[in-house]
Amino acid sequence: MALCKTSNTGQSARRAWRVVSAFLPVIVWFISFKSLVFDFDIPLVSHERFENKNETRKSKLGDGCYHVFLDVGANIGVHARFLYEPESYPDAHTARSIFEREFGASRDNRDFCVFAFEPNPYHVERHVKLTKHFDKMGVRYHHVPVAVSDSEGYIIFYHNNDAGKEEWGFGDHVRGARGNAVEEMVPKIRLADWIMDEIHERQLPSKVFGNYSDINPTDGPKVVMKMDIESQEYAVLPDLMFSGVLCKTINYAFGEFHFLWVRYEPGPGGRGGLELQRGHDARNFANQLLRSFHSVKNCVTREFSKLDDESYLHDGVPL
Ligand SMILES: *[C@@H]1O[C@H](CO)[C@@H](O)[C@H](O)[C@H]1NC(C)=O
Ligand SMILES: *[C@@H]1O[C@H](CO)[C@@H](O)[C@H](O)[C@H]1NC(C)=O
């Protein structure tokens, strides 16, 4: 009996093993498939990012700002004054008409934030004074003392012996006689990242002071950008365009293109290189860039205009 039982057990164990070995490939496949799924599933779905969204939302510099004006390459910051104190600058025709069209005739300064990007250390004192001046007026003004680019790091800029013109040529090119230029290492940021981090999906204020029924889109919060960055535009603008940041965030942009010789070496991945021959080549590149950008259908940016307002170079209106 005992023997028979043992033999029975042995037989059923052997039968079970045969069944298991018949399905072994399926089991192995199933286990490895599951681990495959999990291996790929976790990084792709990134549960952490979505589930904890509320806890991880970092506050943005743009929170509480209904309208935003980005003055990229602010020099001594006259465009913020054109926006906030238009009555003092009757000759700033270009900037005044842009602001009037974009922000309407009944705008209120309390609805705005201005971010002024200017890396020139010679202008720091001026921006401190401007900030105090705007504080007294009860309006928001932030000096961001960095150069803008398509990557983070440092860049050599040149003081080009044009202090008499508020150093308007401070940038990555030596202008005029080489012996007169003085190097300055300045920090740079990727503007596309900064805009996504600090402006895109900013928290809008609960109270709006102005009447924006006359702007397009009607009653909409807007972001307007001025760009005058001494040929870094050939790095920054394609990055803003092809990353989608411009189309997602900026309603209207205007700025100057600099028709200089431009050479960016490719990065380690082989991308990022660009060479433009002075004048003709840079002009063609800029025109084609704007043209191709204009052909994008799904985009909040109405236009990037080649407009510039160089009135009041020295400001001249006391603070
Ligand atoms: C996140 O916050 C919003 C509003 O404060 C709330 O409606 C939503 O339920 C929250 N989501 C999670 C996942 O906590
Ligand atoms: C805003 O202005 C328009 C005319 O420009 C006017 O019809 C409308 O009543 C105003 N809205 C408010 C809330 O004052």
Short structural summary:
The chain is α/β, with parallel strands linked by helices. The protein contains 10 helices and 11 strands.
- Helix vs. strand class: alpha/beta
Domain count: the total is: 2
Mean pLDDT: 88
Percent in strands: 15-25%
Bound molecules: 2-acetamido-2-deoxy-beta-D-glucopyranose
Fraction of residues in helix: 25-40%
What is the radius of gyration?
29 Å
Tally of individual helices = 10
Q: For the largest beta sheet, what order do the strands appear in spatially?
A: 3-2-1-7-8-11
Q: Uncertain runs with pLDDT below 50, 5 residues or more?
A: 1-6, 36-46
Q: What string, H for helix and E for strand, traces the elements in order?
A: HHHEHHEHEEEEHEHHEEEHE
Biggest pleated-sheet summary: 6 strands, parallel
Walkthrough of the structure:
39% of the residues lie in helices and 17% in strands. It has ten helices and eleven strands. The protein has a six-stranded parallel β-sheet. A three-stranded mixed β-sheet has the order 4-6-5. It has a two-stranded antiparallel sheet with strand order 9-10. Mean pLDDT is 88; it is low at 1-6 and 36-46. Helix 6 links the parallel strand 2 and strand 3. The longest helix has 44 residues, at 2-45. With 319 residues, the chain is α/β, with parallel strands linked by helices. The protein folds into two domains: 7-40; 67-305, no CATH class. Bound molecules: 2-acetamido-2-deoxy-beta-D-glucopyranose (2 copies). Residues 211, 213-214 line the site of one 2-acetamido-2-deoxy-beta-D-glucopyranose. One 2-acetamido-2-deoxy-beta-D-glucopyranose is lined by residues 211, 213-214.
